[in-house]
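Ticket #4471: complex job returned nothing on first submit. Input attached below:
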Amino acid sequence: MAKVPKPSELLPGISYRPPQKGWMDIKPEFREGNYCNPAGLKWLQWLGYPHIHSWSVENEDWGLPPDWKETILQGMEDRLKRFRTLRLFFDICVRCGACADKCHFFLGTGDPKNMPVLRAELMRSVYKRYFKPVGKLLGEIAGARDLDEAVIKEWFYYLYQCTECRRCSVFCPYGIDMAEMTILGRELLSSVGLNIDWAMASVAQCYDKGSHIGATPQAMKDMMDFFAEENERVTGIYTPVHYNRKGAEILFVAPSGDYFADPGTYTFMGYLLLFTYLDLDWTLSTYAAEGGNFGYFISHEMGKRLNAKIYAEAKRLGVKWILGGECGHMWRTMNQYLDTWNGPADFLEMPVSPITGTRFDNAASTKMVHISEFTADLIKNGKLNLDPQRNAHIKLTFHDSCNTSRAMGIFEEPRYIIRNVLPEGHFVEMPPNTIREKTFCCGSGSGFNADEYLNIRMRGGLPRANAVRYVHDKFGVNHLGCICAIDRAVLPTLMRYWVPDMEVTGLSEMVGNALIFPDEMERTTDLRDRDLVGVGETAEEGGEEEE
Amino acid sequence: MDFFKRHFFVALSAVLGLILIAYVGARGNLQVIFGVVVPYLAVLIFVEGLIYRVIQWARSPVPFRIPTTAAQNRSLPWIEKNLGEKLDNPETTAHVIGRMALEVLAFRSLFRNLRTELRQDPDNPEGARLIHWSHKWLWLGAIAFHYAFLVVILRHLRFFTEPAPYPITLLTELDGFFQFFTPAVYLSGVVLVVAVAYLLWRRVSIPTLRYISLAADYFPLLLILGIGITGILMRYVFKTDVVAVKQLALGLVTLHPVVPAGISSLFYVHLFLVCVLFAYFPFSKLMHAPGVFMSPTRNLASNNRWVRHVNPWNYPVKFHSYEEYEDKFREAMIEVGLPVEKEQ
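Support reply: We reran it on our side without changes. The output follows.
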């Protein structure tokens, strides 16, 4: 694993002053720690990807196919015809610079090509050279440049320093969406055999077995049963898990991050407690076992191929509607792509909460409801008996995930849940320019969870961490809440790096902590086995503090 | 010469060259070329180019509905959205029209602009922290520039109409409200030149912005600056025969072009720069003006979950079917008690 400089070394080294040399004359230097490893050949074979070959990023020769240039240009032309966005976004950018300091990778690296305007210009310059007469004629002075291998390498470097978070798009006066351009650019790179391992491994595993983590059905069941046991151990309540059950009312689809590792697993335990409490008629699927979609990060087609399983499984099981777990990019795809890709879901019914009778009209076509909507509705209708004191050890700030914010707009539901499961005064917002639609990315989205990429990830996460540190120092916040599985997977690392002593938690975990079951045994710990305030050691300590 | 200088001076020389061409042409008795042929040609290129480009965009479909959701989306009935939220995350066509109106008339997105700085902070263990300021200067410069330009254009309609319609006369009077100079100083002209100068200044002086700027960014600013300055010079310093100018303008719009005598060369320089701007428009980034109306992240309602968006080129893809999946794992599934379709 690449060495990552200490925070105190990294931060002072960041400068937003661009170099003297023009950007066309500067080429990226690939060093251990600033690139993701090439995809393993096995994954690509499973998926039937083109031009599968072995290559190394630090090698001069990337082993591109002989006709790589035609492939890229043909691919670009094809996408210009299929996506109005691409042509429009190429044509109308005025380089006003409003997006420049909005990108977390620019703020964390100071690399001018991480300004979204310039990242787009890396592709736009090729578009101008081959698709615009003025670029053909005037070349560099028209901002056009030849497509050579160095350009491809530059695309690889910078298109994998964009997490498709869309923060720049919020500030762009024309709504130019860097995320869409990044996806299309990555599609082009894929077409000549350039893919990154973490993303491709996840995609291939999901395609073949059911989820990104590659759990076989039996392994997945093992994990789930373990959570049920854990729930029973901690709360005394048996939380049955249902698998592939035909005729269930609801198919529940969660991101696999929630059953893979802490602290996501506690969120999953929270789901199970909630469903048991409600006596919900639900089922999991070991086949459509993944809500997330790493395929979407790298191509529209791959996203569609993975997502297809969800509706197919809902149909096979004969469920009425689908409930989705806490995940970020999953909800981008469920909100903006699912129905277009794989719909219409006319075999499903309008989602209605069996507990409150609330019709989720806002999901009338996709037939898929977000767990935060579902839970907020339950709380509003007084269907959950909650004891916020069981979360009294938590002082929380909430991280709006990029995708649920800027590609869906789910802001109030999670906050409503938070206010109801935490004691008064235990929820503190980060500064307004760093939350909601202006929220900062975790720095590791869109397939960057890889360890070899820690250097870039810690840089990309700087703006997020910086805002967390502010509420940590000022208000004693000790937990970072989120409704995204990638967040739960990567924010703990980011926090250990920039803001030690900060725990990361999903909201359903806190719901699970707070839920009072009838005839339950007295709870002394939360789902993580931490003593509750007023119980055991914390009682004594807490008492002293209060005195 | 470095990248910045090359791009800046190419643009500057181009504008100076254009001024020189028009000046020499006017002096060399080519008034018919510069007063009639070039304007007609420019308008023709402008109109045809504009239509061509818009059609070119329109021919590519919008496969996915991907609006940027900058506020709460439609949710549970008790989660209410105020008007601002409705416009920042529109659910209906009316909201979309509102969002677009705000975007086009008030530069909504630019108004959000922030400036982020890495500020030294001894209290921080790393010695510095990021701060995010509200930063409205770019918005102010842009809005001042665009509205001033609009007023200037409307004001010029009095040259093309006889008698000038009342709204135009009124606008002209309002524009010249501050009569601290004779002839009355038009505010719009002053604001236009100041705003363009600011936009140019920030492009040259802010290092990151200078780094991303191309000749195509300096050229229109310099061109418009040239148009503004020649216009102002003509009105306040080297006065030209306005009656003759109006005769020329009326001749052009009535398709009976005449070239009256007594029009200064400065006027032809001014007119030529305007013509270049028109002809340049469809082939440049100035197409952001019609383009913003077609931007799919802004002009679509965020109603994906209840109204299906159809992709015209949606094609079937190969995915791993449940049958293939069960065939692979059947034995193991049966062993751990997972339900299967076929027992063997």
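Residues 204-533 of chain A form one domain. Closing as resolved unless it happens again.
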